[in-house]
Structure formats: C-alpha cells, structure tokens
Amino acid sequence: MCALVLLGAGGCAEGGGGTGAMDAGGGGADAGEDREDAGSDAGASECTRNEDCPDDGVFCNGVVSCQSGRCVASPAPTCNDGVGCTMDECVLATDECQNTPVDSLCPDGTVCVAGAGCQTPAACEFDDDCGGDGVFCNGDEVCVDGACASPGSRDCDDGDSCTLDECAESMGACASTVYEDVLTNPMHCGTGDDDCVVCPGPDAGAEHVVPVCVAGGCDLACEEGFLDEDDDLANGCEIECAPGGAEDEPDDAFEDANCDGIDGDRDRAIFVSASRGSNANDGLTSGTAVATVARAIAIQAGMPTRDQILIESGSYDMPAALELASGTGLYGGYGADFATRTDSRATLTASSPTALIIDGATSPIVVDHVNLATENRSGVGESTQTVRIRDGFDRVRFRHVTIVAGRGGPGAPGTSGGPGDPGTPGAPGDGSAGGAGGLFGGGRGADGVRRDPGPAGMAGDANDSACGGPAGSGSGSGGLGCADGDPNDGGTPASGGCPGPSGSDGSPGAVAGLLDFDGGYTPARGGLGGQGGTGGGGGGGGAGGGEDCTVAGVCTFCGTGGGGGGGGGGEGGDGGTGGGGGGASIGIVLATTTLSMEDVRIQTAGGGNGGRGGNGGDGGMGGPGGAGTTRSSSTEGDGGNGGSGGPGGDGGCGGGGGGGPSVGVWGFGISSRLDEVDPVVFLVGSGGNGGPSCGNAGMSGESTELLDAFSF
After folding, report:
1. What is the pLDDT of residues 325-338, one digit of tens each?
2. CA dihedral over 551, 557, 558, 559, signed as positive or negative
C-alpha cells in the first residue's frame, strides 16, 4: 500500500479523479464512471505516439493516449488509496488526488488514520496532548473523553461573500477564489468586492418568476419557457412559451418563436432605441440599446453574426445615408422594452439626398416596418434619391415600408449675354487721300486724282448681314486747269451697311436629365443662345475731281478732296446661357436588382422648377462714316462722306431649364425589376415646371411611377 496521502499524476493513484467516493473493501467503490473512448468521438483519428492525441492537460479529467493507432481516453482517476475509511477524490482546484480520513467509517472507539486505516486513538487529558492525525483538512485534534479526535473538517471561511472557500490538503492550507459567475449567478450575485448576496425570490403569487443576477445586480425574470404578457412581473409570467425552433426571424405575427422574450433572436440582435438609447452603449441587449441606426450598423460591421437590427418605433434624424451590408435586416415596430412589437414603424429621415444605400448583396437583406425619407432640397439643382440599390440581384426584400422622396431643388437662372462691340468710325479724308474704313468691314474712301473724274469709294463688307454699304460715287470730269477755271463737282456720300442678324435661341431643357448611380442626377440644362451677327460695314465716300491751277505763277496740280472711310459694322451680342434644370425627386434608384416588395408605398414630392434662360446681349452700334475732305476753291472737288456701319444683331435667348423629374422607381435597363408581392402604391408628384425664356421655355419634368424599370 502506498504511504503517500496526496497523489499527483506521478503518485500511486490510478491516473485521475472525478467526484469523491468512499472506499469499500478493496477500494472498488472508488472507481468513477469510465469516460467514453475518445476514438468514438474523434472518428478514425490516426496517431503514432501519445503526443499526437489532443489532451486538455487536466489530470482530473484523465489522459488521452495513442493505442493501436487510435487516440483513446483513459477513465478519470479514482484516486483509490486502498484505505477503507478515507474519502477519495480528485480536487479540481489543485488537480491532485486527495484522500480524507472519515472517522464515522470506523468502529466506535477508533479513528481513521491516513495510510493506516481505523486505529485506536492515543489517550489524552488536554487538547495540547493531541498532535493531530496528520490530515490538515480534518482540522486540529482535541481531547474528547480521554481520546484525541479531529473535528473531521477545517473551517476555511475567509469572511468574503464572493469567494469559494476550500481546503487544499496538498497545499496544507485553505484556498479562496472569487466565483467566476458573480455577475450572473443569483446564488452569489455581486461585483466580486465582498458584496455578493443570494438574490431574493418574488412575492407570493408571482408564478413562474425567478430571481436573476444581471451585471452583478439582483432582478426578477420569467422562468425559462414562460412570458410576461402584461409587462407586470408582480402578477407572474402568464404565458407558457413552447419554442418553435432555434431560429426566430421577426415576422408579421410578432411571434417569439424561440422564447427569448422578443420577436427576433436576442443573440443575433443589435438594439436601437429613440427613447432610451445611447451611442455609448454596446447595443447588444435591450437595456443597453444605442440611439442611432448608424451606430448599430457600425457595431454590426465588427460583429457580422449580429444580423438583426431591431429598432424602437419612433422618428430618427440622420445626417447621412445608411449603407446596409449583406445579410443584414432592419426591423422596426418595437416598443421601448422590445418585448412587444406592433404594426407601427420606425421612420428614418435623412438630411442628405439619400437615406439608404445597398451596393452589392451576397446574402439576403430585409427592410421591415421601417419608413425611409429624404428632406426637400433647397440648393440649386439638388436632387433626392431616397433609396439606391445596385447588384442586389434577387436578395433584397422590402416589407411594410413607406419611401418618401423630398422635392428637388430649383434650377439656376441663366446669365444674359454680353453686348456686342460697336463698329469703329471710318477715318475722314486727309487732303486728297481717302479715309480708311472702320472695323468691322467699313469701305475705304477714294483718293482724289489729277485732271480726272474723282473715283468711287470701296463698298463695305457684308460681314454676317445681308449687305455691305455701297460705295459713294466720284465727281464729274476734272477741268484742264490753269486757264479755264471750270468748276468741279465733289464726290457723293456712301450708303450704310445692313444690320446683323439676331442669334438663334437656345434649345429648351429636356423632360429629364442624366442619372448615374455613383454620380447622382445631372439636371437638364437649357441650350446656349447663339451669338448675333456682325452688321455690314458702311461704304467709302467718293473723291472729288481735280484740275491744274496756277500757284505762284506756276501751273500745277491743285488737289482735290478724298472720300471719307465707311464706318465699321457693329458686332453681334452674345447669346444668353441656358437655365439650369430642376432637381429630381426619385423614390428608388435600381440597378441589376429584382426588388421584392410587400405592402410598400412610394411617394415623391415633385421635381424642382427649371431656371429661367438668360437674355441675349444687344448688338453693337455701327460705326459712323468718316467725313470727306472739303475744299475752298471751286476748282477742287470735295470728297464724299463714308456711310455708317450696320448695327450688330442681338444675341439669342438661352433656353429655359427643364423641370426636374418626379419618378417612383428609376431603373437601369431590363435588369431592374420589381417583384410585387402585392401592388405597390405610388403617389408620384408632378414634374417641375420648365424654366421661362425670351426664346424657348424649358420642358416640364417627367412624372411617372416607373422609368426604365419593369414590374411583374
């Protein structure tokens, strides 16, 4: 027989522990139940040595060894020491065998001695005469009726209400450890700081109500399998709940299928409460709900198994769009305690153009008993697209949902065209030299000639107009000079150029602009007005005729007057810019998605009005013609004046901006479809008014339930 009392893995025990057992005879009563062959759990796991087999390293659980190529678990150690009066057990606290003598198993007048069995105790007169039985956990021996006897146990109470107090024979000391479940166990509920209590039960009459420990505090709750119908635990939990299965998706019957107290699964839920939530909470229980859906989505991103976002009914303002991940459900309709759910809604209103974005769905997404809305837009050309879904395929379902798209913003007004530059004046004749024509396209005045008739000036350029100004004709024949003294006619004035044509008016803004999933909606702007044409240049004046005359006794050329240059034509005015298109009001933008819809209403407030088209700029004035040269002698003909340039044409009016469209569902081709479980109710507002214009007013915006999307 082994002489050691405490047996470890290398001691005399048979290799394990389990619960304590009293020796009986040859120790057969020490044996616990054998553990199952690990091979039956592990299948045909192969091994070549013991190290290949998984083992938790706990001696009291037994060991796993490799036998014939299979991992086999040995029975838990019995710790049998072969002494019939000891209690044999494997103590988990120390992971060692412990054999405690029990005097009551010995005949009267004898005591149990470790390693020796039942023995006659030593005689004594005082407690000090007793030296102990060698077992620390039996306590200190005392002298009783002339014999030494141990109390059979040692008091290890450390006075701390939150500790488990045990006697560890192998250590020869008491061991006290804080309960691991002080925060949740109603038998020792507290924080672990010597404040643990046994939670009190309910008052009489509260059937199926049990004490619970929540975060170290005592509370009451329904017994598992029962529900509190009236939210009053004082009168008990009235409804017996028979779980229908492990899965509990929120449903139209608002049924608690898994008996966890809510319609849904607490272990998969993140809770959002308008009345009690705080974004400092973790959102994982109804009592620690967060305040916003955006915070819940952020938590869910790091905890993908928490795929049910449960929302208390009420209103929630959002500064930005929500982006919902694959496999996630948004479920509204809950009361503040989440124990009740009704046919009410949670309403999420975004101040941004979009409230919800789903971009790619590899697993089902559900929006249930939730309203989604965007506010009216006031910025120039701003649009609303309350819901945007791309690559949802057939995995997105909307149930009991109302979608409201705010009104589109107004289009910006176009700007007026700038005025055309005026034509420059024609230059006056300079002596016999004709004056230069002005810009743009004025004809040059004719130069005077000797003894010949004065020539005609040059005609002005037509430019963009119907005509340039005809030239002024020259004078009659010049005299022979010196002796005849014949008078000479002057050149004639030229005519003015024609006015330039007006610019064409810009095209009207269309019924709808362009939609891009990422870039949003581009409003339909009115067209730019055309520039006015340049007026025709004025004609150059004709020259006067000349002859010879006597100057200082010498017969010489007396000179004649040159014609004035024609004035330049005025430039055309610039065209006005088109008015900006009104913003769109769109309920859902759908791309590569078949959206399942049940009890859904889509409402659009209407498109924004288009902006006014800009006025065309005034054409520039034509330049005046230059004066012909005048002479003081009748023998010298005067030059004719140049003609004025024609005015430029006015610029065309910018087209009015198109009114913003109002569309229930705007899709991208045949891949965008609605699967209507029951008919969707559309309340589509009118398209925006087209912008006014002095030319072409913009077109009114489109108003339709479906645009490039199909329903079946």
Report:
1. 999 999 999 999 89
2. negative
- How far out from the chain centre does Cα 505 lie? 43
The ranges assigned to domains in the chain are 86-149, 155-241, 263-342
Cβ atoms of 477 and 484 within 8 Å: the answer is no
* 297 SS3 class: helix
Q: What are the structure tokens assigned to 621, written together?
A: 């004035």
Query: Closest by alpha carbon to 530, among 664, 367, 655, 378?
Result: 655
Helix (H, G, I), strand (E, B) or coil at 670: helix
Q: What does pTM read for this prediction? A: 0.65
Dihedral over Cα of 179, 181, 185, 189: its sign: positive
Q: Are 454 and 533 in contact, with CB atoms under 8 Å apart?
A: no
Q: How many helices (H) and strands (E) does the chain have?
A: 2, 36
Cβ-contact 56, 76 below 8 angstroms: no
Q: What is the DSSP letter of 343?
A: S
Number of Cβ atoms within 10 Å of the Cβ of 132: 12
Backbone phi, then psi, for 40, in 5-degree steps?
A: -70, -25
221/202 Cα distance (integer angstroms): 9
- Angle at Cα 395 formed by Cα 391 and Cα 401, nearest 5°? 100
Alpha-carbon span 309 to 316, nearest angstrom: 14
Tens digit of each residue's pLDDT (9 = 90 or more) over 635-692: 667 778 888 989 999 999 999 999 999 999 999 866 788 888 889 999 999 999 999 9
